[in-house]
């Protein structure tokens, strides 16, 4: 997209004050939770009020020393790392097959592979619950990993399909004309060019799995609960003030991954599309 | 083609089979082992299930309308910015999009509760006796779900607005059309495919909401997802959980079907075709 046309989008004139006001009210609404949670996280351990009466680090101390929270956080990280790696492998390979392949029913197959994205989370969770119970692995960490792998793969596919469309297929063709196999070209030519997109997709998939609560809520047992499941149970039963500190940390994680993904996709998206 | 095979096999084993298990559980009684439609019959005759279905549809449709109302001005405002400013402002949409739904729900509990930020402000101005019920009711659910959905609506509309041919807007301007007229007779109609695509995507996602109605809603704001969870976790009635799931899945499929019919909807990141 060239700059000149961009600046003149929609006729070029500045948005009217009415539109600007509505938009900024919208921005405030969208940012409200993040803006509220950060000062709250420095409150004390007795009550949840905004703004806090005193500013302390007690809630963070409580989070980092309570084994319920640290244990479930480690569990979440373990699951998210494995699900991300599996999702990257399955999703990238499939994205390559869809974008580069030429066979009948390609569009339909692509839609089918992305369909888990459109199935409500609870329906997937119930399916896993009944199915894994029949297999005898319901309640295990493995069951959550398997579920989360399916959950993150469509996101990986969407990012990688977009990135692959920006990689010149002729460079790959040149490799194959010179006698390299398709798999070899994929590993040695395509993958290095997709490095930024792979990191972006991986970070996004990690966050999706790390924050996912519904599948984990259905599948995890007493000892295998993830951080979001523990948070949900805490909100439903007691609303512990430590939730403010956890929420602030999660907001910070979201911000870091958001900025990283934006920077990475900006860099790989600069190539002109053919 | 071989590159697709691993995912196809994985999906057959960890997606298709689980869904078939749900379908099976919805029509085969756990107690008698007989093939039966009694669970669907119960769904469509009992007050509880019909009420939850109605609540789910209400929240989805009203939530989508409110989302559009908030998202459109944001999208329009973003489209009017220079690319550099737009990329900064887009971060304001992306941050909540990346933030955990639990964090957002928890924050809104703090904002909307009886001792929350809003009610504190109201008491400060109007006196101790004034309290608005903003939480554990339909209002709380709407605040939460609309907040969650706005980014999904903003992105397709911004892409559409930026892709519109600005010469048409210029031509209308030269011929003396006012800004309002240009918007309502050119820009808005041209953006309708994106509005339709965004709305359908939002409806699908709203129908499956679980966390927000559970945490910000009251007893009458239970949605189908919460009902499924109740049947599995508390009532231990797998048959009804499966039947409700199948109804929810069919509703989602119906809307997905409509979504594929929207012209120029740019599903799955396809490039827009010219001409």
From TrEMBL, chain A:
Xref: CDD domains: TM_PBP2
PROSITE patterns the UniProt entry points to: ABC_TM1
Topology in the lipid bilayer: Multi-pass membrane protein
Subcellular location: Cell inner membrane; Cell membrane
Taxonomy, superkingdom: Bacteria
Pfam family, one: BPD_transp_1
Keywords: Cell inner membrane, Cell membrane, Membrane, Transmembrane, Transmembrane helix, Transport
Record-annotated ABC transmembrane type-1 domain positions: 73-261
UniProt entry tagged with the keyword Transport: yes
Protein name: Binding-protein-dependent transport systems inner membrane component
The species this protein was found in: Chelativorans sp. (strain BNC1)
UniProtKB/TrEMBL annotation, chain B:
GO CC terms: plasma membrane
Biological processes annotated in GO: transmembrane transport
Entry keyword NADP: no
A Pfam family: BPD_transp_1
Entry's localization field: Cell membrane
Residues annotated as signal peptide: none
Membrane topology annotation: Multi-pass membrane protein
Taxonomy, superkingdom: Bacteria
PANTHER family tied to this protein: ABC TRANSPORTER PERMEASE PROTEIN, INNER MEMBRANE ABC TRANSPORTER PERMEASE PROTEIN YDCU-RELATED-RELATED
Similarity field: Belongs to the binding-protein-dependent transport system permease family. CysTW subfamily.
Name of protein: Binding-protein-dependent transport systems inner membrane component
Source organism (scientific name): Chelativorans sp. (strain BNC1)
Lineage, top ranks: Bacteria, Pseudomonadati, Pseudomonadota, Alphaproteobacteria, Hyphomicrobiales
